Write the structure tokens for this entry.
Amino acid sequence: MGTCSADFNRSQITEVIEKSLTENPCKTEIRYDEPMSGHTTFKVGGSADCWLQPEGESFPLFCASLLHNAAAAGIPVFVLGGGANIVVSDKGIRGIVLDTGAWKGCSKDREELIVKSGTAMDEASEYTASVNLCGLEFLAGIPGSIGGGVYMNARCYGREIADVLKWTEVIDYSGEKPVIKKIETKPEDFGYKQSPFWGRKSFILSACFKLEQGVKKTIKSDMEKNRKDRTDKGHYLFPCAGSVFKNNQEYGKPAGQIIDELDLKGLSIGGAQVAPFHGNIIINKGGATASDIDALTKEIAVKVLARTGFLFVPEIIFAGEWPLEAKLPASDHLS
């Protein structure tokens, strides 16, 4: 396919990539018309016009060039982490999908841990145990990347990223030239599963966590408890994206419990189903489309609103090319 269904075509995308590689050479895997179903935990979604995955030490400078050049050319760039909190439209994603999966690694400086954004959250948690640092045990077993976790202010077991985040290194491409800078964490800028990076032209490169000395055996034990809890709740039984809706203190109880009490577990549309074992998880029970998941999400929200008066807000991001009337708020960073 030589053209994209937008105000740009493949040759323009290629021109942006080649220009960026000339400015900052970087080993990069590039694929056109790449099915996104292979890059998300829901295992659904159409094709991206172009998917690319840079790697190596030139990663930051190449990404800075790419983001800047793509913006100048009017070509959107979608940043992909672990693909664990998104539903990609059946129509796919227009423009470039920038996959951070090869930009990973952890380094320790006393009680601080610096983690590259493409590192899996579970992998970062495991690393802390190996160096006797505690504070990231709550991330054990969570699919998705550190970049996505910071962007979404990942939260579990009463802890959230903002509790331990010291600073975040980003590429700021909002000005005439991209700038790499560190942003110190201000707790007041973070909210429930929300960070100050929403809506900004910034790309998360790495994060620094302020942790504490601990005992490896205890750290590992706490991590295994969290992983077992997720396993026991069925998080890994079917393709899914974890919790569908955000909790809200006004509800008086978790969203999943409300869905359970309304007997909505098992409700299906096409291949998408409210998990029989957890009300706040939608699963791909086989052959689901993104449209099935979108429709089921809306059906749950409508039923809950009608019977309780509570307006549920999706936690998962509906990414890509959706009809205007169906499109939910999305971001240019994916977890």
